Amino acid sequence: MSETAHKRRIAVCPGSFDPVTYGHLDIISRAAKIFDKVIVLVSANLEKRPAFTLTERLLLIEQVTQQYENVVIDILEEELLADYVRRVGADAIVKGLRAVSDFEYEFQMALGNKKLCPEAETMFLTAAADNMYLSSSIVKQIAALGGDISSFVPPEIQPVIATRLRRPPVPSALDPDTKKRLMQQVQQFARTIGKEGSQE
Ligand code: ADP
């Protein structure tokens, strides 16, 4: 083998990406600088009920990673991550590490994967300070109530995420007259309590 021959280093970045955020993209872009090829692996997580299907999540990531020539996206379904990593000959599983809350779970996963696939290392990249508290769940909660998600996801996928996740406003179950009557009763009650309080 010549001295210049170089084994292509492959990393797998697994996750739910439901949906992809600037936090994920930071990890993907940094991994793409270190490795020759990065496989973003959209994984089915049996413990979470996803808002987007695996294919939708893949398409969203595809839309926002086009500038990285060495990044590809794949789906992990009905297969162990360790088996996938071995099958594609990856050298590392790259994960982002946020505040303390991520640590214990990620440590367990890393140890489990090392047992099942000793040839691959799990590497952690620290989350950027700005993304420390950013998660897909936060994006989903904000979008559900019509909030501004522009600080969390790239502009090209904001509309589809916002539209999909916006919860329809719940119409009030009360007609205006009943609402008014109840309001008056509440005010009356409040006054009564106030009067009784001052008599003591
Ligand atoms: P979550 O559902 O918690 O947002 P995922 O399962 O999609 O996260 O995470 C995929 C990978 O991306 C994990 O390694 C996770 O630690 C990492 N990640 C998620 N959000 C961030 C973030 N804000 N900053 C850095 N890494 C992150």
Blueprint of the fold:
Blueprint: E1 10-15, H1 22-34, E2 37-43, H2 54-64, E3 71-76, H3 81-88, E4 92-97, H4 100-116, E5 121-126, H5 136-144, H6 158-165, H7 176-199
Parallel strand pairs: 1-2, 1-4, 2-3, 4-5
Helix pairs in contact: 5-6
Bound molecules: adenosine-5'-diphosphate (ADP).
Adenosine-5'-diphosphate binds next to helix 1 and strand 4.
Overview in brief:
By secondary structure, the protein is an alpha/beta fold.
Description:
By secondary structure, the chain is an alpha/beta fold. It has 2 domains: 10-165, Rossmann fold (3-Layer(aba) Sandwich); 172-200. It is built from 7 helices and 5 strands; from the N terminus they run βαβαβαβαβααα. A 5-stranded parallel sheet has the order 3-2-1-4-5, with helices on both faces. Strand 1, helix 1 and strand 2 form a beta-alpha-beta unit. The longest helix has 24 residues, at 176-199. The protein is elongated and about 85 Å long. It binds adenosine-5'-diphosphate. Residues 15-17, 23-24, 26-27, 95-96, 98, 102, 127, 131, 134-136 line the site of adenosine-5'-diphosphate.
Sum up the structure in keywords.
200 residues, alpha/beta, Rossmann fold, 2 domains, five-stranded parallel sheet, 7 helices, 5 strands, 45% helix, 16% strand
Instruction: Give the second-level CATH assignment, the architecture of the largest domain.
Output: 3-Layer(aba) Sandwich
Low-confidence runs: none
Name of the top-level CATH class of the largest domain: Alpha Beta
**Alpha carbon gyration radius:** 24 Å
Could you name the CATH topology of the largest domain? Answer: Rossmann fold
Biggest β-sheet description: 5 strands, parallel
Q: What is the H/E string? A: EHEHEHEHEHHH
- Average pLDDT, rounded to a whole number, is 90
Count of DSSP strands: 5
Give the helix proportion (percent range): 40-55%
